[in-house]
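Please check the following for our workbook:

***
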Amino acid sequence: IQSANEKLAKGDQKGAIDTLRLAGIGVIENQYLMPLNQTRKAVAQAQELLKAGKYYEANLVLKGAEDGIVVDSEMLVAGN
């Protein structure tokens, strides 16, 4: 694992993955994606609601933005 970490620190993702593969260690990469424009609008709307003291409504708007997050997972190295 230390060798893989050193390779990652140097920007060698492929080398790190190969090292982990040899050790039989599984790795999953997750990317969290948010629609930028809709999220910005939701945050701005929530700020206005907070200024108006409408905390519950602001929370609902932020929850809606959070629900828009898409998680993309990829198994890079299969474990044992």
Notes: The beta strands are 27-33, 70-77. The chain has a mean pLDDT of 92.
